[in-house]
């Protein structure tokens, strides 16, 4: 549904009070012994960032560096209170781009969707695309970034629609 409609491989991340993620391949969630903890992937600290991270388990994992509480702990104010031209957004975009880079090289999905409160900053996607291009350095060819690294077409309804889809699947296939 939404940006993943008609695609066989979709990865979705929500970046808000935490970072969660899920991957679908041919309509099925990718998981093994447990659900994925994609928000706890390790990221390299941006050179201009001296924040040690807010995750009590890993410190500088993606969630510890890029989730809403990390922004607030680092800057003393919420991301929604920053202006679009605040230099911090370049750091945030770098962490999100690292997530997209890792996801691209591990799963090669048809699309990577970034939702959640942090991604409501409409200026972020351009910064993420730029940082992703710099990180990837042409190593693999991806689809056009405007179609590959995107925000949810379903916007705030993505989680609700997903829950209904899971419930439908459970009822139909028990």
Description:
It contains six helices and five strands, in the order βββαααβααβα. It has 174 residues and is of the alpha/beta class. It has a single domain, classed as ATPase, nucleotide binding domain (Nucleotidyltransferase, domain 5), CATH 3.30.420.40. It has a five-stranded mixed β-sheet. α3 (88-107) packs across α4 (124-136). The longest helix has 20 residues, at 88-107.
CATH topology: Nucleotidyltransferase, domain 5
Percent of residues in β-strands? 5-15%
Number of strands: 5
Sketch the topology as an H/E string, one letter per element: EEEHHHEHHEH
User: How much helical structure, as a percent, in the residues?
Assistant: 25-40%
Quick tags:
single chain; 174 residues; alpha/beta; Nucleotidyltransferase, domain 5; 5-stranded mixed β-sheet; 5 strands; 13% strand; globular
Can you describe this structure in just a few lines?
The protein has 6 helices and 5 strands, in the order E-E-E-H-H-H-E-H-H-E-H.
Which helices and strands occur, and which strands form pairs?
Blueprint: E1 9-15, E2 19-25, E3 28-29, H1 62-66, H2 68-75, H3 88-107, E4 111-115, H4 124-136, H5 145-148, E5 149-150, H6 158-173
Parallel strand pairs: 1-4, 4-5
Antiparallel strand pairs: 1-2, 2-3
Helix pairs in contact: 3-4
């Amino acid at each position: 549904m939404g940006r993943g409609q008609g695609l066989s491989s979709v990865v979705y991340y929500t970046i808000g009070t935490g970072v969660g993620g899920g991957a679908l391949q041919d309509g099925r969630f990718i998981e093994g012994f447990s659900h994925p903890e994609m928000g706890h992937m390790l990221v390299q600290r941006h050179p201009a960032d001296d924040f040690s991270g807010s995750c009590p388990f890993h410190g500088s994992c993606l969630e510890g560096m890029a989730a809403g509480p990390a922004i607030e702990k680092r800057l003393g104010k919420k991301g929604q209170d920053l202006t679009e031209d605040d230099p911090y957004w370049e750091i945030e975009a770098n962490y999100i781009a690292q997530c997209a880079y890792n996801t691209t090289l591990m799963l090669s999905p048809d699309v990577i969707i970034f939702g959640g409160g942090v991604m409501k900053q409409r200026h972020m996607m351009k910064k993420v695309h730029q940082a992703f291009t710099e990180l990837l350095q042409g190593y693999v060819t991806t689809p056009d970034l405007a179609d590959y690294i995107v925000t949810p077409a379903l916007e705030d309804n993505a989680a609700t629609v997903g829950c209904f889809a899971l419930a439908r699947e459970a009822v139909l296939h028990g």
